[in-house]
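Extended Data, panel c. Modelled sequence:
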Amino acid sequence: MMPPMRLPPVLAWFIDEASAVRGADHFLATLGAKLIAEGLPLAGGALTLTAAHPIIARRTWLWRADSGAVIEALGFGSMGSAGSANGPEQSKVGRDWLAGLGTGLVQEDVAGRLANSPASGGPVLAWAVSRRLTEPEAELLQQAARFAAAPLAELRSRATLAALLEAYLGRRSAAQVLAGRSRRETGETIRAVLLFGDLRGFTELSESLAPEAVVAALDAWFDRIAGAVHAFGGEVLKFIGDGVLAIFPIGERPPSVACDAALSAVRAAQAGMAHLDQARRRQGLPSLHFGLALHLGDMLWGNVGTADRLDFTAIGPAVNLVSRLEGLCRPLGRTVLVSGAVAAETTTTLVPLGEHPLRGIAAPCAVFALHPE
């Protein structure tokens, strides 16, 4: 009877465990450590994967053997018909970085191209070694490349799904979908500073401009407001027509931190829109007028819809109030309005505008404006 064939531990890892590894950084670091345990003289490694993302074309993870640290390099640009990024080849990032380790030899060809060539979007593994490989070592590295194809395909599939869900649903909703929350249910209560923004005169804009110009205006508006929100730690929950709902979660930090961050984001959005309007005027295009409101409170975030067609939405008194508060921007001649709940927590100086009734809200709301506007 023939004795059972014994796989090297690193190849057995590919079969038994590698597909469950969460994240390309952990995959690369674990694989590198296991190859070193097999006696391979690795100094570092690089793994490049294409990315299904509106901005990022390729992602490269770079691993150092001496520290075990992994860093990530992003390749930006649109994806061509062949699936490669416009601009410098991203796989060169890994090879150049490995060459910079000073070990004298980069073995990209030994690892090989898995599944497909870089031009067609397949994963690429590259290694830096501290000495020339022996024939058995080179054979093991080639075997590792072959065995890595299946778990890397699984890893890429999961990353693609996560990236697409985040692009269309946002980070919070994508996490819920990936966690299997695909039924109508109560959802989660979030205490946060809520930001509601709306582009004024959008109907008139739609009537006076070509559809392509209207879409370009919407994209430019969303870029400014969402970019400011993300820059100060907030999260865009939904785009609603020409409106946007975002939050700055309180979490474990003091409410004042979230309030100050939200007000900083508002200032940044105003600056971005002012710069955009200057560019639009030079092009003979109308300015984009908008209103923004901030309120602090609890909201319920969860699935609503039919049994087989769902959407994530935010409901609750705080959501109603912030949307109604934004509606006061035009009557009060202000771009930004802040509720008394935010004013009571923030360290930012605000201008009191008195109490105002809000449609559908039982009690009048204390309203504040920025100083200066």
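The mean pLDDT is 84. This feature is highlighted in the accompanying rendering.
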